[in-house]
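Hello,

Our lab assistant flagged a job as stuck in the queue for most of the afternoon. It eventually completed. Since we weren't sure the result was trustworthy after the delay, we are filing this so someone can double-check. Below is the sequence as submitted and the structure that was eventually returned. Let us know if re-running is recommended.
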Amino acid sequence: MGALSTPLLVVVFLAGGAATWAAGVFLSKTTDALDNRFGLGEALGGLILLAIAGTLPEIAITVSAARAGHLDLAVGNLIGGVAVQTLVLVVLDLASGPERPLSYLVGSLLPVIEALIVMVVLGTALGGAVLAPSTNVLGASPTSIAAVVLWLVGVWVVNRARLHAQWRVETPPGGRPGRRHRRQGDEHPYARASTLVVLAVFLAAAAVTLVAGVLLQDSGSLLAARAHMTGAVFGATVLAFATALPEISSGIAAVRLGDMQLAVGDILGGNSFQITLLLVADLIAGTPVIVAAHHSDVWLGAAGMLMTGIAAMAIIARPQRTYLWLGIDSLALVAAYAVAIALLPK
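-- returned structure --
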């Protein structure tokens, strides 16, 4: 691919982005159907099925970058990408309509637990940046291993809270709609399809997302080199936005289905799961990759934690008013990200 001209590389990059967008729509609709048929619920469906499938571009990029020794690119995309992907909640807020903010329409406090998982896992991973490279367990950073363990514990907690709720929250009349607030008479796109067909479409969309992720990484890294951008900055900004396209398209599709919890769970679940990919990068590279983190990665990682906290607080506080179609929390997310980019360490 290095022999391609810059205009052709741009075409490949855009084609990869378009493919991930289209696949994301199918992923959302099939996940919505599968979590109904398998009894997963929106929270677990978003946290596991949709989040993992939407993270396939990050998986492809992480594996490719770790094998090529581009550790800063792998770390920048995984750590710095959290802030970009949390910003996707603003897009979903726009898609949910001007009457009520997305944070008001979620209909569950389970996404708050998912947000806490993001903050715990990301904070643990960032701690590894100050460890000596010699501090490893079979070539992996202890914090990478801890992040995976904490993510698994988080999934268990979400499932337990879903099945055995210890709190009962009552909303005022006219409050949030139900978990699946579809219009009367609306039929799910896969209501008449067999589970086997739905699963086949899900896997096909996941495969397209994975291939597109490889194209994005290969063409993107070459474009970054030709534009004289560092791997860390490119991975945490342009590449992170491109790989967030599955979450944007699948999230909008979930919002249109009336499944706000699935849409938010997709974003937060994807953010927590992608941090566990640091362990994959460690094992492939044979050394802890988090030690390759630049100051910009740590800065954007902290911004991601801040933005996740804002999203969690909004779900609890439930702001009712919108401003220019957005909730006050979405405006705060945009402001936080803008400040983070403006003050991004060189």
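-- support follow-up --
The delay was a queue issue, not a problem with the job. The result is valid. The mean pLDDT is 82. The beta strands are 322-323, 326-327.
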